[in-house]
Amino acid sequence: MVSLQLGGLGNQPEAYDVIIIGGGPAGASAAIYTARADLRTLVIDKGLTAGALGLTEKISNYPGVPGPISGAELAETMRRQAESFGAEFITDKVVGVDLQSNPKMGASHSFGVAEKDQIDRPAQLQTCGTHPLKIVMAGTGSFHTRALILATGSMGRTNTVPGEEALLGRGVSYCATCDGAFFRGQRVAVIGNTDEALEETLFLTKFVERVDLIVPTPALKARPGLTAEVTEHPKVTLRLGTRLKEILGNGQVNGVRVQPRTGDEGVLPVKGAFVYLQGAKPITDYLGGQLVTNAEGCLTVDHELQTAIPGVFAVGDLLCSHMKQAVIAAADGVIAATGVERYLRGRKEARVDWG
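Structure (tokenized):
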């Protein structure tokens, strides 16, 4: 168990029914549902542009939201909706958690409402009862919570090439399913040698004029049927044994510099670069090893997205879903939120909320 010093805002840490770490589509959607369920909700987020959604330049496929809008605009809309139901947001970085602590509660602690209003709330929400408290440590202080939703996503590639970070969201993308339609009729590059890279290459052929598939190794490593489909596609130019050296552009991608294994370095005049090289990993460092991860760093959850520790849920990119879509992350948040409500109120089944 991680030992944490309790500083807090004042003499005693603030107490919540649920704390959500991360304010992307998964975290914000969870906050909407927990706040509507009359659970005192706190979202701790590093900022609107800190996650994958905030870095997305244009979104046109989020249901019910006319696009295109920026990811930051969509994130702000979600945040305002959650706040309208009473969720609290702070901009901060979580540096540690204690997932199995049960600190004694002082008389000043109340969950979600002032003491005079507690008589109107379900009895199980007026006491920590059988729900051990978790401790969340952030830069502004420590917080107590009876349930925790982890929505910290995954960090971007750490071994980036020149131009990749500067042009992210300006022609550089890690998701063709998200951004492919914006490159209709243009020439783009896909860099990678995984099943995902080849699947995204085929997806792009629905929109673009041409795809340069840049593969660092001498041979494709994807499953045979997929490999054959890609190599035989008339819109795909396969470039084996070729390294991506630099992504070029002044505010927008206009080319990639590549180095073939044999031959001279050259520039391909593409308008988009879809990068599927290794590097992105779930952000779990603040957990201090309290939850088991698999070889990819993903957390294991049940059908309600609850981890092995009761009351601790994980959503979004922490689960390493290969479908990296904002709407799917949002659905994860809703599933976890209904699981939290069931857990805290002792229901046998999650409550259905259509409104």
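Residues 14-154+280-345 form a domain with the FAD/NAD(P)-binding domain fold (CATH 3.50.50.60). Confidence is low (pLDDT under 50) at residues 1-10, 104-128.
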